[in-house]
Design goal:
Distance between the termini: 15 Å
Structural class: alpha+beta
Radius of gyration: 18 Å
CATH architecture of the largest domain: 2-Layer Sandwich
Shape: globular
Number of helices: 8
Order of helices and strands: EEEHHEHEEHHHEHEEEH
Length: 208
């Protein structure tokens, strides 16, 4: 699992250089449903990684999925997203606020919060006591998520997650040390990637 800062300055196929969070908007504004495909192409071409599938979560979808699980239990060993160390039960609304929290932080902290929440969701659903929520989760997922993953792949993904657990996921981020903040000629504040530092990380994660 690799998190990419939204302000990373990259080449967008057919559009030139821009933030990495813009291809979805560009394509979606021309044809509904095409956004994820250009986003995938952009990541693939800039990072040199073959990407077969995607899942698009909207913020509202995330909230509905958490609520369908009966909420999410988290335990913080360090302060995060405005919460002190401790155990908390979050509703979908609070979980979404946790992931989106920006006060006193930046996008690098948001990436950590997002990865933490994804692992917490996986950990909770892997516990047999929570399997009673699976039908509700599947309904919420099907109603609110857009993906090109075929049905037969889902069973393989579920088995892999069950086998390795959330702690078996290699979770990395494009860090501050791998980028250089700069201002474009139009006055936009963005992040220039240092590929000499990023490429070894990509190689170690994806063996390309």
């Amino acid at each position: 699992m690799l998190s990419i800062p939204r302000d990373l300055w990259v080449n967008i196929p057919g559009y030139g250089e821009n933030r990495i969070n813009t291809p979805h908007f560009f394509a979606e504004s021309l044809e509904a449903g095409s956004g994820p495909y250009l986003a995938v192409q952009t990541v693939s071409e800039n990072f040199g990684v073959d990407i077969d599938y995607f899942i698009r979560f909207r913020f509202e979808s995330f909230r509905e999925i958490v609520d369908s699980m009966g909420g999410i239990d988290i335990e913080l060993t360090t302060p995060m997203a405005g919460y002190d160390v401790g155990k908390y039960h979050l509703t979908g609304r609070k979980a979404l606020a946790f992931v989106r929290h920006r006060e006193g932080s930046d996008d690098f902290f948001r990436m950590q919060q997002g990865q933490f929440m994804i692992k917490a969701l996986i950990s909770q659903m892997l516990k047999p006591v929570n399997w009673i929520y699976i039908p509700n989760v599947l309904i919420a997922f099907n109603n609110s998520v857009y993906t090109n993953i075929p049905v037969h792949i889902w069973a393989r993904l579920a088995f892999a997650l069950f086998r390795v657990g959330p702690n078996g996921i290699d979770s990395q981020s494009i860090s501050r040390a791998m980028v250089m903040p700069f201002t474009t000629s139009e006055g936009a504040q963005v992040l220039m990637p240092n590929w000499d530092l990023i490429n070894p990380l990509i190689l170690s994660m994806f063996d390309q």
